[in-house]
């Protein structure tokens, strides 16, 4: 998001005033009348396994850059507390500013190692206790994605996380985007051959949806991702003859600390198939304590990781808590946008797969989605099997049909493909309803139990699934809007733990079907 950008702006303003901000709204309105030494730290850059030593080095560098060159005279062999005491003596009598970005990275990157986590937490607690008692601190800002217990001390810390007065602080509102990016939006729409309305819709799908407001009213676009999308357009507007076009890619999550938090959390978990289904849910209900409550290593929950690290965002206040004070409200939450959903699916699937990295997972997802968009059901199933064949046996051992249903949905969802699980009408519930621009699929799954691999057993299940779709009139409550309506049946093999047969029927192509040989890891 925009936390790092805010940190760099404030560091520059406190250090130099508004001299570098001519042409912006802050120019001439910055209230400070003097400049300050700024201790500017980014904990995401402190990667050394010996965290305490790395923090000493980062502090020394930051103090030197702020004008306290006497740091070089401090004996590094003394304890960390004494080292901090020497720094305190250096700034005695001065007013200083502290800007600390990604304070929690040393903890989120150690969620798979409790001993290393606790060691880093102890060091951070000593550091923040020192910072809290420093005299002459004009201003201090600390950013991060998760709030951990026993790190900060004191009751005078102001948590801005869900404060409506700061709800639009770290992102662009839709109004700001439309107003300030008007020439970029016009040019991008032209080069991509989209209407401006279509472009704005896709920008919202990819980079919008963030909410940091206990009223769930202010929605933001990620500035980092938005700026990277428009970067080629900016070059065109200044006369650069670049051939590069704006691309709806996954920009923010590629470098976000949120990926680190989820990845390391999953490393120390042994998820069951039911827990995987829970993690794959697209909509959840979350309470305020989960959103803002400080957590201990042993008590971190899936929902806290997903929300505090930015994967899920507030959609609305639940109807039954809307009139309650903010501290008692619950919220409908959902995956924030396409940018995040794609990375989330890749991280989770990589955890389930043995040796298949996130980039390999993304490739398989792309193949499956591309095949579906081409109405190639067999190739879609094979691409999904390329991942299933690598899944951990301890997850797959007791996997039920709903596990496969959820994973198929996870694999196929994209900005071009909408997938709904257990889509109900007045007669029953269809396992999956999949909508693309040109096709609407009703998908029924059937499980082939035991060790059977006989074609006649697979055909019987395909017949049963097809008849069920006809009898229950699936899709009768969903407008086709000119799209082909296709009935799809898929058989899951208990023995191979993969998709083993398929059938598709519609008026244009009639009935198609096939049997799928088991995929092995070597075939990927």
What does this structure look like?
The protein has helices spanning 3-16, 51-65, 80-90, 105-108, 114-132, 174-180, 182-192, 196-207, 223-237, 252-255, 257-267, 273-280, 288-292, 302-308, 338-352, 358-373, 377-388, 393-396, 401-412, 455-471; strands spanning 38-42, 96-101, 137-142, 283-287, 312-317, 330-335, 418-424, 429-435, 439-448, 484-493, 498-506, 510-515. Helix 20 links the parallel strand 9 and strand 10 (484-493). The strands form 3 sheets. The protein has a 6-stranded mixed β-sheet, with helices on both faces. Strands 1-2-3 form a 3-stranded parallel β-sheet. Helix 15 (338-352) crosses helix 16. It contains 20 helices and 12 strands. It is 42% helix and 16% strand. The protein is globular. The chain has 524 residues and is of the alpha/beta class.
